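1st attempt posting a full record on here, be nice pls
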Amino acid sequence: MPFLDLPTHRLHYRLDGTDDTASSKEWLVFCNSLGTDLHMWDEQVSELADDFRILRYDRRGHGLSSAPPAPYALDDLGSDVISLLDALDISRAHFCGLSIGGLTGQWLGVHHGPRFGKMVLCATASRIGTAEGWTARISDVRINGLAALVPATAERWFTPDFAAANPGVVTSVLDSFSRTSEEGYLGCCEALRDADLREEIASISNPLLALSGADDAVCPPTDLESIAHGVRDGRHVSLPGRHIVNVETPHPFNAAVHDFLRR
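the predicted structure (as tokens):
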């Protein structure tokens, strides 16, 4: 089980698609959402690992990664990705991130654009929510813990039809949410509270695909349209589903990502 030890924490990561022909494949990095782990990308890896070398990881305080003391800033989350690329001697990669993972991707495009090829930003925004909303979330978690958020999280993340038809999938994702380090979750909430890249994304020159869930109330399609229009070379595609659109609509999601990266 591979880990990268950094001065304040360790990052758990996983490599897929690195077989004997790996040298001919491009790298693709997956970056998970708040309250999930690297397994949220299992359906993507199963379809894309034949064509890409894939790096996915648990962000700090999530999954098997440790949680350094909060607060965190978006710079910290983006720097973790660069530390992984450096440690694994990956000079350049495509990037796919969802929610806070997509916000991390925007930061990387602004500050480390040449390290990346194409970028896929999913169910995200350049400013997710409001400072007041995140402050309230932080207070709620400190008082009641993460378990109290599970019912509302399920409703935000998945449509009722999907949840009814796929209870095992939903339970697995929500179990990951419940296991998230409270310190790590709160640190990332603080990063989200303070992050606003609406002015900065104009400097992103990487070809960019913004993917939205058509029924996502957290980051609605208009947020993804704004990103696509705000960068130099962006396009927007909306797919059925709510916030965790890659889990709810995996095959159309995978097709959109594959077509964009191979176009």
